[in-house]
Amino acid sequence: MPVPARLGVFRVLCLFAVFEAVCLLDTGMLFPRESSSREVKELNGRWDFRADKSPNRNQGFEKAWYKSRLAETGPVIDMPGPASYNDITQDPTLRDFIGWVWYEREVVVPARWIADEGTRVVLRVGSAHYYSVVWVNGVKVTEHNGGHLPFEAEIGSLIRKDPTQPCRITIAVNNTLTLDTLPPGNIQHMDDHTKYPDGFFVQNIYFDFFNYAGIHRSVLLYTTPKAYVDDITVVTDFLDNTGLVYYKVSVQGAATATLKATLMDKNGRCVASSSEPSGVLKVVDVNLWWPYLMHENPAYLYSMEVRLMATDSRSTYEDVYTLPVGIRTVNVTSTQFLINNKPFYFHGVNKHEDSDIRGKGFDWPLIVKDFNLLKWLGANSFRTSHYPYAEEILQMCDRHGIVVIDECPGVGIKDIRSFGNSSLTHHLAVMDELVRRDKNHASVVMWSVANEPAAEMPPADFYFKTLIKHTKALDPSRPVTFITDSNYARDRGAPYVDVICVNSYFSWYHDPGHLEVIPIQLKTQFENWYGKYQKPIIQSEYGADAVAGFHSDPPVMFSEEYQKAVLQSYHNVLDQKRKQYVIGELIWNFADFMTVQGITRVVGNKKGIFTRERQPKAAAFILKERYWRLANETGRLPVWTKYPCSF
Ligand code: GCB
């Protein structure tokens, strides 16, 4: 169904606004990909490591540990990367460590990278939690504030200074959370010597997952030519059966350059091309990108190859970058979420980046296992609760048609001091970085700016209005939400969002043990929110803890039977309301995950429908049955699902 003409013009204006808005950011942050002009060298594996356990945690800086090999300034231990450092050793002080830790490794840089002055060598950290400082051969090359997004530095000139030296990379990472970090936290010192040992302090946090820390995603070196494709922005649309790919390429390192953008189908056949740095590529007989279980041929991806040629007095540079592109549209009405103009119902999960030993460290086996479980479950979507996930995960979503609500780390904003100017400035900067990184993923259909902030506090209104407006200006092509708890009086962000996302835990945190309240309270929740805002609603969290293997009939809290009963009771109401304006349901949580120690958590949060080891609890089968039924009602199953063993 084509977009009505007036809406179509408005949409195109919006698409061009994206390019203007995103261009306000200094540089791009394209995912490093190999090509005929680019090489990538992963620095994953063993690093030397030392936690700075000095009383002020500052000895590393005072004694300049970055100036020589780490092993020369004190003892080091082996530390794998990517991984959180917390669960790697038997040392409880390292598990609960707060402050600076130091990583170091030496890298052999290919001689040709050094010899060729026309090659840029870039050091990139996929993510390190939370604040990082990076040195190469003792020289500081960059620092980064924030735990979930990539950062990089060009180091070619530095390593060329003395090509005989090995390239020593030192990364200091500090996991301290303050009132201005995202998520926020604060450090509390306990000075009463009758109660606490000397120098005792704790990190207070207001969110429900372990504050894992360290180098969480790949560190790598990659090359580009001196003149290079710095960024690509793509926004897609379609009219009848013609796909429209609006694009803009930004180039660095060349005053003038020529470029060619070629869009290829799955078979490598060119379907459209252009020689302009921005414009629109038109695809006849387009294969749209459809979500998993909505179409028999979901997740169709084209490849957009950008080939750049530039010349300076010394030489000619050619750079090639290929971006996967899914062509689809997203629109929101007062009762529906439309993908490609068809109603989409989110039947999915909330996740965490979390597993035993690795903590929040990137791990391919875990990721592929999780995608197999999502597909087994019949889930078509997830929310990146409560921070941006690894880029490779979003690439998997693009490939498999799993729809994503992309959430920034604005979780646990509970202290009034975290609504001040410096917090807001950082929050806006994090949104800039998030949109810059994830804007081209077809799977990403909505931005989430925060989870359950203390929205009743007076400064919250200005804070969220500014944040949501900023995010919409950054990317007018996607709706924006913020996740609220069920109490609709705490609604400061709601007037500004496109979709209302509500978390509720009836019969758990409220009226514990009373399953009979769910039908009434859930119905009231939906009717209140819709009555006030007339915006579509997603049940963005619901669930109950269940310790795998605990059984009780009649059901009692923490048993598998109770978790099942909560889900079934929610589903009855969701089935009534999804005929009206409820557009999705995301279970809390996909899998059990680690939290801080506390009296409400038994070795972590147990609301997973899978255990932390990814084994199903009884609730997983309830959800599987439901999701496949919903898929049969609302979508078209891929041909291969006749053979359910194939995933
Ligand atoms: C919530 C939070 C989530 C918690 C969950 C719980 O509302 O958004 O981070 O883990 O409740 O289990 O308490």
TrEMBL record:
Activity regulation summary: Inhibited by L-aspartic acid.
Gene3D superfamilies, alphabetized: Galactose-binding domain-like, Glycosidases, Immunoglobulins
Residue span(s) of domain Glycoside hydrolase family 2 immunoglobulin-like beta-sandwich: 227-328
Keywords: Glycoprotein, Glycosidase, Hydrolase, Lysosome, Signal
PROSITE patterns in the cross-refs: GLYCOSYL_HYDROL_F2_1, GLYCOSYL_HYDROL_F2_2
EC number annotated for this UniProt entry: 3.2.1.31
Residue ranges occupied by any Glycosyl hydrolases family 2 sugar binding domain in the UniProt entry: 41-225
GO molecular function: beta-glucuronidase activity; carbohydrate binding
Quaternary structure and interacting proteins, as annotated: Homotetramer.
Family that this chain belongs to: Belongs to the glycosyl hydrolase 2 family.
Annotated function: Plays an important role in the degradation of dermatan and keratan sulfates.
Name of the protein described by the UniProt record: Beta-glucuronidase
Species per Swiss-Prot/TrEMBL record: Sander lucioperca
